[in-house]
Amino acid sequence: MKKLKDILNKVVVQKVHGNTNVVINTIQFDSRLVKQDDVFVAQKGVLVNGHQFIEKAIDLGALVVVCENIPVDKKQGVTYVEVEDSNLALAIMAANFYNNPSTKLQLVGVTGTNGKTTIATLLYQLFKKAGYKVGLLSTVKVMVNEKIHKATHTTPDSLAINKYLSLMIDSGVTYCFMEVSSHGIHQKRTAGLHFVGGVFTNLSHDHLDYHETFAEYRDVKKSFFDALPKTAFALVNIDDKNGAIMVQNTKATKQTYALKTVGDFKAKVLEKQFSGSLLMMNGIEVWTKLIGEFNAANLLAIFGVATLLGLEKLEVLRLISDLDSVSGRFEYIISANRITAIVDYAHTPDALKNVLQTINDIRTGNENVITVVGCGGDRDKTKRPKMAMIATQLSGQAIFTSDNPRTEEAQVIIDEMEKGVPAENYKKTLSIVNRKQAIKTACKLATSGDIILIAGKGHENYQEVNGVKHHFDDLEEVQNCFNQLKRA
């Protein structure tokens, strides 16, 4: 329980109607969760305007309403606080309510189109192996030291973030690594947090259904670095031309990493196999279980962050050699007759290209590459033909199937993908709407030595169709197929 005036600290308030000296129970932005003496923050969301539910929240017991427009009809005994931006106000209030937990640990944010989950998760792994109590906020899961919490968004809402950070403080956590999505930045979910460092991975085609233009998507990412304090570090992938843009106006100390150009942290891939890679990092060789140039870049970012946070360089490299791959990121199994199946979260054109190029770099040339891929419904439609084109250009066979169609028809999504297939590649494409059947077909088409890539869903263990989530796990499905082939 807190006094309203205390949780409004640093919130830019336009006007107040009522008493700010009242004691409130907790903060809610979902009117359905409001209870007696709560604060209800009315947000103008993408789909719903919370101002429509102010009266409902008061009926459920809200003592305070924070909103961008105070209603004309005000209820007796309720305090109304008008702010310019409810999202920003909620973030600052959440931090205040939980006693600003981000200032009591070392919080590092990772942003970019691809690599966020891998970098954040492997940093969590590395610091755990180094003997620290660590927290993780990621797409796959939330970790409060050893305790797992289910993740629902890449970047949770600001109340959840501060709640988890507060739990971390209570558990003795000293470092936390957090994925920072463009949606999270744009919706001010990370406002009010104190970061000791930020990482930029790369920028490619994604989320244009939300941001509308690539420039807006880029500038939203950049605003995260603009907000970093001068005591923080900003570590950017300078191989990506947007890396330099990210830190144009940052007050943080600028640091760079690169595979192809000059950087403060530099790496080169010396050898690559399905079992791992030999890298040269800042002049020292290190073997890793992860493969591909994109993972070399991810590991280089990890090396940079750990070093900047004060860990000894040789110890960091030793720990990197012991890191395991992240769930659903280039996870592979090999059948009894030597067919390799790879499950990867690649759901953008750039990520799909990176994974297929890695596969083609490692294979000897005689194996056939079969790619099973779809695109999510109710998301950026412009990437669909691009992903199909990449799949057909870099595979011997491409099977287009459903991903998470959500409220769209899966066949319509596949039709839009097929528009990107060059005429000369038509003969090596198949369309199978049922994802389970598509994976089975890929397994039946493959012969000894062939490689199957199942892309797009990675760690996800469900398929969302018409708003309903059904259990579905790519790795389970391909393992079942391999078991059936073994018995046949």
Reading side by side through the largest sheet, how are the strands ordered?
A: 11-10-9-12-8-13-14-15-16-17-18
- Number of DSSP strands? 26
Specify the helix fraction band.
25-40%
Radius of gyration: 24 Å
Oligomeric state of the chains in view: single chain
- End-to-end span in angstroms? 64 Å
* Beta-strand share of residues: 15-25%
Structural class label: alpha/beta
Mean pLDDT: 94
- What form results from the Cα inertia axes? globular
Q: How many DSSP H or I helices?
A: 16
Biggest sheet features: 11 strands, mixed
Report low-confidence residues grouped into runs of 5 or more: none
How would you characterize the overall build of this protein?
By secondary structure, this protein is α/β, with parallel strands linked by helices. Helices cover 32% and strands 24% of the residues. The chain is built from 16 helices and 26 strands. The strands form five sheets. Strands 11-10-9-12-8-13-14-15-16-17-18 form an eleven-stranded mixed beta sheet, sandwiched between helices. Strands 19-20-24-21-22-23 form a six-stranded mixed beta sheet, sandwiched between helices. β10 (141-144) and β11 (147-150) form a beta hairpin. The radius of gyration is 24 Å and the shape is globular. The protein starts with a strand and ends with a helix. The model has no long low-confidence stretch (mean pLDDT 94).
